[in-house]
Design brief:
Shape: globular
Strand order of the largest sheet: 5-4-3-6-1-7-10-9
Number of domains: 1
Radius of gyration: 16 Å
Structural class: alpha/beta
Strand content: 25-35%
Number of strands: 10
Helix content: 10-25%
Number of helices: 4
Length: 181
C-alpha cells in the first residue's frame, strides 16, 4: 500500500492557523449557509488515520461536540503521559522520532495519514515527510498567531494540482510534493 502523509488545513491570508491566543473562531468568519464541507469528507475517504500534536488534540477535546473523527487518531506528545479516559480507544499516544512514530503506525496497517497541527506539520515538513497539502485560505488578516510554516532545513517544491473557490470567498489550493529525481 502506498504511504502518503497529507495536510488539510485552513490559514488566514497572512499564513496563520490560529490567532495569537490560539483561537480559531475566525475560521467561521465567512458565512456558510450551504453547510459546505469544502471537500473535507471527500478527503477523509482516502485517510486511514490521523497524526496530530498535543495542542491540536487539546483544542479538539475542548470542542463542545462528540468526538469528530471516524479514523484512529495518534497524538504526538512527549509530555502527555496517557490519553484521558474519555478518549481512550479513539486516540492513541505516540512518542519518539517521526520515523519511529511512522513505523509504529504503519505496522498497524495505517498508511494514508492526515497530519494536523502547526508544530506537527512543521516537523513533518522539516523531515520531508509531507506528500500533499490542501490549504484553504480565509480572507482575514490576523497580524499574529500560530504560523502554518516555519524555517525549513532546505527548499521544498510543490506542484499545484488544483485550486477551487468555496463560498465565493475561500480559495482552496491542492499541492503535491515535487521530489528531486
Amino acid at each position: 500500500m502506498e504511504k502518503r502523509n497529507s495536510v488539510f488545513i485552513a490559514t488566514s491570508l497572512d499564513g496563520y492557523i490560529a490567532d495569537k491566543n490560539g483561537g480559531i473562531d475566525w475560521l467561521d468568519s465567512t458565512p456558510n449557509t450551504e453547510n459546505s464541507d469544502m471537500g473535507y469528507f471527500r478527503f477523509m475517504k482516502h485517510i486511514d488515520a490521523m497524526v496530530m500534536g498535543r495542542n491540536t488534540f487539546d483544542t479538539v477535546c475542548g470542542f463542545d461536540v462528540e468526538w469528530p473523527y471516524t479514523v484512529p487518531v495518534f497524538v504526538l506528545s512527549n509530555s502527555l503521559q496517557e490519553i484521558p479516559a474519555k478518549y481512550q480507544g479513539k486516540a492513541h499516544l505516540v512518542k519518539g522520532s517521526l520515523s519511529e512514530v511512522l513505523s509504529t503506525i504503519h505496522k498497524q496497517n495505517y498508511h494514508r495519514l492526515y497530519i494536523d497541527g502547526g508544530i506537527t506539520i512543521q516537523q513533518f515538513l522539516n523531515e520531508d515527510l509531507i506528500d500533499e497539502m490542501i490549504i484553504t485560505t480565509i480572507p482575514v488578516l490576523l497580524g499574529d498567531g500560530i504560523s502554518l510554516f516555519s524555517a525549513l532545513n532546505h527548499e521544498m517544491y510543490f506542484e499545484l494540482v488544483k485550486s477551487e473557490v468555496h463560498l465565493n470567498q475561500l480559495v482552496q489550493s491542492h499541492y503535491t510534493r515535487k521530489r528531486p529525481q
